[in-house]
């Protein structure tokens, strides 16, 4: 029988400070309770604290959370970490439900399929995996990329998915047959982020040079947006594979998202958030610059968007009102990813914490 371990409730905050301490205790069945403490010996260059334990307790490892998502019904969350695992948890209170293990090295991205019962993940092991959130089994593994997978997108209900990699390619996959349906783009530069969106009728996506596979489902009238390391933002027709535009920014693009059938956002390593109109993309609609810290995630939200940056800032911009709400708590640790469900906003940060914010009516 495992001995229950108890730990100070605010241990995560306490151990973020140099020489910060938190207590813990363990009560083995039939034996006296053991009492000890955790002490932060400093913060490493990667932002993860060096923690030691007393009284025979051992700290095996400390992991950062790299990505998160919330299921369509808002009941479950999934988060990925640098140790190769993912966790499924109750979104309301963070209670752990499942651990998904199978990737080697970092898991860079994770997201729920629209059903809320299945998870898609991509890792530094160049593998794309599909998991059951109900029993933690890995049901499909896609292989074909030659570099770590940095982002994914799900097409419609999820018969097809797209992945972007350090190897410079974006690939379209058939989930039912575990097969690659083709290389959508070969950029020659790392693809840091991607998004799929329905195109406005006024946008010419071109025609495919070859008849699309019957296994392609929902790719017509869709745009694929690629945020590239070589300072380029690339848009193409998902089914046609034809270019729509190529925009050159001020630095490497880290993330991107669609706001509508013709408006999009993309964030760069030097802190710029570009808003572009696909119908006339040569000149940005606007460029938002709040700090020089890298823009790490962008998410369409109501009439505006949510952005997070490498200096710990996370904020909501309401487009029409030019209204801004700051989400605090991350201090100076990078906020890697943001997810939402109704009025709840969830963030994951280098300090290893998932934070949940409850919004009142905006």
Automatic annotation (TrEMBL):
The keyword Repeat applies. Keywords: Proteasome, Repeat, WD repeat. InterPro entries: WD40/YVTN_repeat-like_dom_sf (IPR015943), WD40_PAC1 (IPR020472), WD40_repeat_dom_sf (IPR036322), WD40_rpt (IPR001680), WD_repeat_multifunction (IPR051179). The keyword Transmembrane does not apply. PROSITE patterns: WD_REPEATS_2, WD_REPEATS_REGION. WD repeats lie at residues 58-99, 100-141, 142-174. Transmembrane segments: none annotated. It comes from the Eukaryota. SMART domains: WD40. Belongs to the WD repeat PAAF1/RPN14 family. This is Proteasomal ATPase-associated factor 1 isoform X2. The gene is PAAF1.
């Amino acid at each position: 029988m495992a001995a229950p371990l108890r730990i100070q409730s605010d241990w995560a905050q306490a151990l973020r400070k140099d020489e910060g301490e938190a207590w813990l205790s363990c009560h083995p069945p039939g034996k006296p309770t053991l009492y000890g403490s955790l002490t932060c010996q400093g913060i490493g260059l990667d932002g993860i604290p060096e923690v030691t334990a007393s009284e025979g307790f051992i700290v095996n490892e400390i992991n950062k959370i790299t990505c998160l998502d919330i299921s369509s019904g808002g009941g479950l969350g999934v988060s990925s970490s640098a140790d190769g695992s993912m966790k499924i948890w109750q979104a309301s209170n963070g209670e752990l439900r499942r651990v998904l293990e199978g990737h080697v090295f970092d898991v860079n991205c994770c997201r729920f399929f629209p059903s809320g019962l299945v998870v898609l993940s991509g890792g530094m092991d160049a593998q794309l995996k599909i998991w059951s959130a109900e029993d933690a089994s890995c049901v499909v593994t896609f292989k074909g990329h030659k570099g770590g997978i940095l982002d994914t997108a799900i097409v419609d209900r999820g018969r097809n998915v797209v992945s972007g990699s350090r190897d410079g390619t974006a690939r379209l996959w058939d989930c039912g047959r575990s097969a690659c349906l083709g290389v959508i783009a070969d950029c020659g530069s790392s693809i840091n982020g991607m998004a799929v969106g329905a195109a406005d009728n006024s946008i010419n996506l071109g025609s495919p040079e070859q008849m699309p596979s019957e296994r392609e489902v929902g790719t017509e009238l869709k745009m694929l947006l690629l945020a590239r390391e070589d300072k380029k933002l690339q848009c193409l027709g998902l089914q046609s594979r034809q270019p729509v535009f190529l925009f050159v920014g001020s630095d490497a693009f880290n993330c991107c998202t669609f706001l509508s059938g013709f408006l999009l956002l993309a964030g760069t390593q030097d802190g710029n958030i570009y808003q572009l109109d696909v119908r006339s993309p040569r000149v940005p609609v606007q460029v938002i610059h709040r700090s020089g810290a890298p823009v790490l995630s962008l998410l369409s939200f109501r009439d505006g968007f949510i952005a997070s940056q490498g200096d710990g800032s996370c904020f909501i911009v309401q487009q029409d009102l030019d209204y801004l709400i700051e989400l605090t708590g991350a201090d100076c640790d990078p906020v890697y990813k943001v997810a939402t469900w109704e009025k709840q906003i969830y963030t994951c940060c280098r300090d290893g914490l998932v934070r949940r914010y409850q919004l009142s009516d905006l």
